[in-house]
């Protein structure tokens, strides 16, 4: 079997590639990634020589490049993770998100419509986000039937992609699954996201920016647990269904950052890391709270989260401490320019 993983050199994608490469040596794992700022072949260095690993640099919105790849490696499964995924960047440059998340998804669906016509032994698996559901108040959870209510250019682009997947499934009979997951963390995460940004600022002893007063709530899951859920659903999820993946771990941002500071001090002998916490002007339209009620089907097929949050954070901090070459490789001039654009004026207020 040929399995495509789009965005496979990114954070979540690289963990999924690693899992499938090892568990399914008889299958071809075709990694498709444009290698933009968050795609990094260093994330896959440990599997690059595997005989069932195939990497192709390409923009999923490039129809001719995708068709050529389809001719070379006709897929039975597309695990679609390629996406612009950072809310802050979507506020700065929304058209980039439309290009990849909407046009890129439809480009892949068009290929599936042409080449999978009438087949039921194939699968288009759309990996999405809980952010498509909008914002919760102090109570309640996102569930499988929660209406979409995207509030940022990022979540709107993912919501549009999800709807296109459903539309192609209904109109053209393409077998599909969608899963919506909470915030991931773990090794290899690009340092624009809260947890790696905090860890790397702790290492450099730089201010740790937190929007507003840090009261916004996100539901956290270790990337290892997320990719295990994707694998299980790929094998036994009901086609045409949407699943919610979560570890039932909603936390306020300030709680997460404070815990990271304390764990970092425990691991390194530092004693004053909380003093680096710096509250900055909130971003526009910042959703207040996300919380997920995981789909019951996940537990019925034998999945449950394995990594407790505090232990997962401790392991993640240690990974960044142990991998300075990877860290220096992603903190390029373009990343530093983005960091200054996003946080520079806020930190100087």
Overview of this protein structure:
The protein is of the alpha/beta class and 349 residues long. The protein has a domain of 210 residues: 3-Layer(aba) Sandwich (Rossmann fold). It has twelve helices and twelve strands. The chain has a seven-stranded parallel β-sheet with strand order 3-2-1-4-5-6-10, sandwiched between helices. Strands 7-9-11 form a three-stranded mixed β-sheet. Strands 8-12 form a two-stranded parallel ribbon. Strand 5, helix 5 and strand 6 form a beta-alpha-beta unit. The longest helix is centred in the first third of the chain and has 22 residues. The radius of gyration is 20 Å and the shape is globular.
**If you average the pLDDT, what whole number results?**
93
CATH class of the domain at 2-185 and 220-245: Alpha Beta
Beta-strand content bin = 15-25%
**Uncertain parts:** none
Number of strands: 12
User: Pairing-aware structural class of the strands and helices?
Assistant: alpha/beta
Portion in helices: 40-55%
Summarize the main sheet.
7 strands, parallel
Order of helices and strands: EHEEHEHHEHEEHEEHEEHEHHHH
Q: What is the correct CATH architecture of the domain at 2-185 and 220-245?
A: 3-Layer(aba) Sandwich
Supply the CATH superfamily name of the domain at 2-185 and 220-245.
NAD(P)-binding Rossmann-like Domain
CA-based shape:
globular
> In CATH terms, what is the fold-level topology of the domain at 2-185 and 220-245?
Rossmann fold
The gyration radius over C-alpha positions equals 20 Å
Quick overview:
This protein has helices at 11-23, 63-72, 87-92, 94-115, 153-172, 194-204, 223-236, 253-268, 296-300, 309-322, 324-330, 333-347; strands at residues 2-6, 28-33, 53-57, 77-80, 123-129, 176-181, 183-185, 208-211, 217-222, 241-245, 250-252, 277-280.
């Amino acid at each position: 079997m040929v399995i495509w993983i789009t965005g496979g050199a990114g954070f979540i994608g690289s963990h999924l590639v690693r899992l499938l490469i090892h568990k399914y040596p008889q299958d071809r794992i075709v990694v498709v990634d444009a290698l933009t700022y968050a795609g990094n072949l260093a994330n896959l260095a440990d599997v690059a020589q595997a005989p069932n690993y195939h990497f192709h640099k390409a923009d999923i919105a490039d129809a001719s490049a995708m068709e050529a790849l389809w001719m070379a490696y006709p897929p039975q499964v597309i695990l679609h993770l390629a996406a612009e995924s950072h809310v802050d960047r979507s506020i700065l440059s929304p058209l980039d998100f439309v290009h990849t998340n909407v046009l890129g998804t439809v480009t892949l669906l068009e290929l599936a419509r042409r080449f999978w016509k009438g087949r039921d032994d194939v699968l288009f698996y759309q990996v999405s986000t809980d952010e498509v559901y909008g914002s919760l108040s102090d109570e309640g959870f996102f569930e499988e039937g929660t209406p979409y209510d995207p509030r940022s250019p990022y979540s709107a682009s993912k919501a549009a992609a999800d709807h296109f997947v459903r539309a192609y499934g209904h109109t053209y009979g393409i077998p599909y699954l969608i899963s919506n997951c909470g915030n991931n963390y773990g090794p290899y995460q690009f340092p624009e996201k809260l947890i790696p940004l905090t860890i790397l600022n702790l290492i450099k002893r730089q201010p740790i920016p937190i929007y507003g007063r840090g009261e916004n709530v996100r539901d956290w899951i270790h990337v290892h647990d997320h990719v295990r859920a994707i694998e299980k659903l790929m094998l036994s999820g009901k086609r045409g269904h949407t699943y919610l993946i979560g570890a039932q771990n909603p936390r306020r941002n300030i709680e997460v950052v404070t815990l990271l500071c304390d764990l970092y001090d425990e691991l390194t002998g530092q004693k004053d890391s909380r003093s680096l916490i710096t509250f900055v002007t909130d971003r526009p339209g910042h959703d207040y709270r996300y919380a997920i009620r995981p789909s019951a089907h996940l537990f019925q097929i034998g999945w449950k989260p394995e990594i407790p949050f505090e232990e997962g954070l401790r392991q993640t901090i240690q990974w960044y401490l142990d991998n300075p070459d990877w860290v220096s490789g992603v903190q390029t001039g373009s990343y530093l320019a983005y960091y200054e654009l996003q946080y520079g004026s806020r930190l100087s207020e």
